[in-house]
Structure formats: C-alpha cells, structure tokens
Amino acid sequence: MKRSVQSHCGLNKRRGVVLVVVLVIVAMVAFAGFSFVASMSTEYEAVKIDGGRMQSEQTLASAEALMHWYVDMPRAMRTRAEFDADSLFRNVKLEPSGDQAALPFDRSFSADAAAPSIEAVDRAVVTDNAWRFTVVSHGHSARNTETGSLGADAPDPGSRGGTFQFGPENESGRLNLALLLEFDAAIPGSGRESLIRQTGMTAEAADSLLDWIDADDIPREFGAEADDYQRLPQPYRPRNAMPETVEELLFVQGVDRQSLFGRDTNRNFRIDRNEGTLDSLDDLDVLNQAASRRDFTSGFEELQSASNVDLPSGWSSLISLHSAERNVDPIGRPRINLNHSDLPQLHELLLAIVPEEVANFVVLMRQFGPSSVAAATTSADSDVIDFELASSFSINAIGDLIDQSVTVSSESAPVQVGSPVTLESESGKQALRRLLSHAAITDEPLIHGRININAAPRPVLLAIPGLSESAIDQLIGRRNSIDVDVRKTTVWLLEEDILSVEEYRNVQPWLTTGGDVYRCQAIAFRPRGGPVRRVELIVGPTASGTRRLFRRNLTEPGGGFSKSLLMGEI
Prior knowledge:
Blueprint: H1 2-72, H2 75-78, H3 85-88, E1 92-93, E2 132-138, E3 164-166, E4 169-170, E5 175-176, H4 178-186, H5 190-199, H6 203-213, H7 226-230, H8 257-261, H9 281-292, H10 299-307, E6 319-320, E7 324-326, E8 336-337, H11 343-350, H12 356-368, E9 405-408, E10 415-418, H13 426-438, E11 439-440, E12 446-448, E13 451-452, H14 458-462, H15 469-479, H16 492-495, H17 501-507, E14 511-512, E15 518-525, E16 533-542, E17 545-553, H18 563-567
Helix pairs in contact: 4-5, 5-6, 9-10, 11-12
C-alpha cells in the first residue's frame, strides 16, 4: 500500500514535470510566433516605407521629365498664352486616366500642336491617394518671363508673407557670375560695382569673389588671391574659374553664410517664425512683404533700412552659374551669324528675314566697319556692294547697326551709306526686331549669361552697367503692362523711351528676352499619408541635348509647403 502511494506520487510528479515542460514549449512557440509576427510586421512597414520612397523617387523623376519636355520646346511654344502653369505644374497625377497609354508630356511637340492636357484632379474632393507632384519656384520674377502667363504668385496661409509661383523660374532672370568678368573687361571696376549695387556686399567681398572666378593670381584692389588663402590656418587655393556650386562661394574672403543664403533655412522662399532671430514679428512682416514684391521695387532698400537684414534666401537667389539660351530663333532654327566669313552666303541668308537694303548694309558694315561720320549721302543699294571684297570688321552687337553709317570706298569719292535699321521708321524698327530674333553675332550653339529684362528683379537689373536707376524703375513699371508681342525682343526699351540709342547700344549685348535654363523645386506627395519628398532642379540645354544641370535634395529641411496649397484646395 505504501509502495502504491509512493508510485502514484512519483507518477504525478513526472506528469507535473511533463506538463511544465509542455507549457514552457508552448510559451516558447507562442513567443516565437509573436516575435515572427512582430518581425514580419516590422518588415512589412519597412517595405511600405521603402516602397513609398521608391514611388516618390519615380514621381520626382516624372516631374523632371516634365521639366525636360518643357525646356525642349521651342520658345514660341513655351510662350503660348494658353499655357497655364497652374494646371501644367500643379497637382499633377502620376497615373494616366482613361485609355491613355502614357503621360501626355512623353511625346514630341510641334509648332502646331495643342497645349498639353494633363488631367487636373478635382480640387474639392480627393477620391484616391495616387502619387502627385507640384513644381514651384521663386516668385520674384515677372508673372511669366516671356508672355505674362506662366506662374501665379501664391501666398501660403501658414506663413507670414512670402510668395512663390507654380512652374519653373527662368534662370536668365538672375545674374550669371561669368557676366561680371565681361562687365569688368568693358568698363574696368564695373564688376565690383555691380556686386555692390546688387547685393550690398562690401568692396572686399566683391573683389575677392571676382578674384575667385578670374583666371589669374593677381589680386584686385580689395581682393584676395592664392597668397592670402595660403596664410589661413587651414590653407587652400582659389578656384580661378567659375565655382561648381553656389556653396563654394563660402570659401571666398568676406562672404558669410547669412548674406549668401539668408534666413530661409528650409528654402521655401520666405522667413518662417522659427527661422533666424529677429527683434520682433514686425521685422518678419517687413522682410516678407519686401521679398514678396514681384519686382522688389524699393523693397530691397526698404528691407535693408527697416529691418537691417538681407533677402529671405540671401543674394544666392539673385545669381546663377548656369543661365544660357540656345542660339536659335523662336521656332528652333539656328540664328544667322552676322559674322559669317562667307559674305555672299550671309547676304543670301539675310534676305530670308530682312529687306534687301538691310542685308546690303550688314555686308557693307562687315567690309568697312562703322563710320565716324554721322551723316549719310545714300542708302544701301545693291550697286554699292562689291562682293569680291573680304570682310575686315566683326559686328560686336546687333545694336551697333542702329542709326549707323558706313564709308564705302570707290574710284571717284568715298560714299556715306546710312543704316536702314533706324527708329525713325516702322520698317527700321521691324528690321531690328527681326535681326534680334533671327540673327546673332556668333554661331556658338549656346549663348551664356544674358539677362532677361522681362524676368529679372530690380537687384539683378541694378547689376547691369549702363542701366540707371530711373531707367530700371521705368522698365519695371512698364514691362507688365505692355503687349506680350512687344516684349518678345529688347527693342521695347527704345520704343518706350526708356533708353536712348547710345545707352541701348552699350547694354544690348548683355540683355535678352529669352533663356532656356530653368530652375524649380519639385515636390512629390500623396493626399493622405506617405512621405513628402522635395528636390531642387536646374534643367537646361547643353551641347549634347537637354540635361539636368543641378539637383539638390531638400527633403531633410521639411516639406516647406502645405499639401492643401500644393493640391489647390484653397
């Protein structure tokens, strides 16, 4: 009996041990299952996040493709009034609709084709969560750099002041730093003066910047060259060429970060409450109100005196390293080089765009150069041309043909031939417009650095030697009120009596109404949830076609713009 009880107790103990072991195994299996589920959930979330990142990158790639398509278009198509940037660049769905096989900008574009039709999502009700992108840029340029229709200044209700525009910004509305060396070559010291007038920088910083980009090691009056930088605790050498990025200018003696980039740390074209330190919110209002004026008319000076701070994005928002335009006419055909070596062929080419007497005068100018005698005794008839004579003079600017005369040698006596390119007649003005649109002084495929007078804000125009402040005020005051067709060439500066012929001749080589390099911020987003990714892009022509010239990731500083604004729900 005793043994039976002991045996029964031992059996119970063994059963208890087995039960405990089973429970432990079950618990371990359960924990392993929970761990597996948690791991899979984490992996699932990681895949979702990575998938969202990849999808957002593809959305940004689509935005860049749209930019390439836009830049590739001939200027005449880009300037069509029916191009509405609000629908073309705002809230663009990545998915095609209906029976579309491809996105509508994924095709060639002819001069007679209709404007692109990109589906606009209903702004009142969003019924899907598809990826979208919006393209924005700085709002200090004219409404459209060429037609007056591109872009719509839009205030962000979450900010204190500040504006931007939908669509890209013409890079020719900025001052190309390479142009400073041309200014200096034409008028010694004007490069420094241009930088001081435009940015308010010191003479030391201006001369040092010019020393950084010129090719020699000779310091300017207030500048710095290799010897100066070699004496620093951490020595380096100046590039002696154009910088690769704007950030490189921080190495230039006298240039500081706040002046260069301003207080707009998240790069949304305005000063937010959490950016920088100002004495009061009134200072913030003054800053943003001055910056939001489309042309900075007196805004820059008011900003400097009232709040003692620089532009929201610093003077980096006024300069360019990339501005250029194709050397083609408005519909994409190569311009005629007025300095063509074959004068008979030049004459034949000119007959296709201007009257014969204008073509004759261009040939005579190439053969004999401008005359010091103003009065002319005859017109440029064919009988005064000897095509056997070689050219001996190069035309420096198309503006040099205005009201000019040429002394033509003959067996009897020299003959003074007057230019038919004159402001005294409508035919003379029309000839000047045609030459500016269809001719050039070089056959280089790209013309770099010229400033678009229809797009440049006041500080950029102030940098041009020979443009007085009164002329700039008139230019800004009239450029948005005159007819679009009138603004297609720079002749309107003469027609509106803003510049005299002599003043126009001096500045015309640096002016344009075109430009084929564009800058923007592309923002990829979904209406509900998902990452928001933002990049800065510069796209423009090169010798091998349209290319991305610059890309910067702006995702880390934050979205910068509310989704409701990007989608057009306000």
